[in-house]
Amino acid sequence: MPSLRDIRRRIGSVKSTQQITRAMKMVSAAKLRRAQEAVTRARPYAQLLEEALYRVTARAAAEEAPAHPLLEARPPRVAELVLITSDRGLAGGFNSNIGRRAQRFMVETSDRHEKVLLSTIGRKGREYLRARHFPIRKDFTGVHARLSFEKAEEIAGEYAQRFLAGEVDAVFLLFHEFRSAISQQLILKQLLPVVTSAAGPEGGSGVDFLYEPARAELLQELVPRYLRSQVWRALLDSAASEHGARMTAMEAATKNAGELIGALSQQYNRARQAYITKELMEIVGGAEALK
User: Fold this and answer.
1) pTM of the entire structure?
2) What angle do CA 234, 240, 246 make, to 5 degrees?
3) Burial annotation 30-45 (CB, 10 A radius, 16+ → b, else e)
4) Whose CA is closest to 25, among 267, 225, 256, 278?
């Protein structure tokens, strides 16, 4: 049975841990508010841009007008999967879920792709793949340290060049989409070739517009812009989801620490009571022996 000193030391250690987890929860909550505002600001633009691109590409396809090269679907001989994880841990299953989903993707698509390349955004994704000896084509470092649209533009531009050069036939993003502080949905999104859907009430409308410049020139501007917005949106969603997952994990850890402190306090009180009872019995026994 542990001594009173050992139990007191354990209670102090758990209390220190509880203070750390409570502080981390508060920090994540503050960061979450800013990240959630960034996601809320970016989503309407991305959705409207997708609607506009859908209308233009749908009309161009109907009239057999020349499409943009990034819209061209070809046999996905070589595919690339980009894992967007965090740089830090202590976020529950946030990073491990992405790693497991990436492994399942490679198994499920083995009959469609001759080769699947893996790239990572975030230190935890890199560590997950290296621990399991998966080759990494490229690790985009420093993206989360200073999250900016220029980083998203750089990533989108690199993959557009690789797609146009025929180095890769399909590119997928794997990330968490932010729903709320306690809900993040794992999303596998095809980045290239660009596939748009009718998003919104006017997505499938038969109304057309007069375009200036012409559709072909408009697509030359819209498609790269859409590509950049999708990468930027994925990065923002991932950042907000990370803070939400960490806040939830630290709240659960703080609660568990409180329960453990309660259990240890009960154990300490029982041990102290037993020690006092034993001392009293020894005193009474000694007094009886002297009579």
Assistant:
1) 0.85
2) 130
3) ebbeebbebbeebeee
4) 256
Distance CA 22, CA 31 (A): 14
- Residues of the chain with pLDDT > 70, as a percent, come to 90
pLDDT tens for 50-81 read: 888 888 877 665 555 547 889 888 888 999 99
Q: Which residues pair with 138 in a beta bridge?
A: 119
| Residue 257: half-sphere exposure toward Cβ, Cα within 13 Å | 19
Look at strands 138-140 and 115-121 and give their pairing.
parallel
* Mean per-residue pLDDT over the chain, rounded: 88
Average pLDDT over residues 130-149: 93
Helices 215-290 and 149-164, axial angle in degrees (round to 10): 120
**Tens-digit pLDDT profile for residues 176-232:** 999 988 889 999 999 999 886 644 444 445 556 666 677 777 888 889 999 999 999
Condensed to tens digits (0 to 9), the pLDDT of residues 1-22 reads 678 889 899 999 999 999 999 9
230 CB neighbour count, 10 Å cutoff: 21
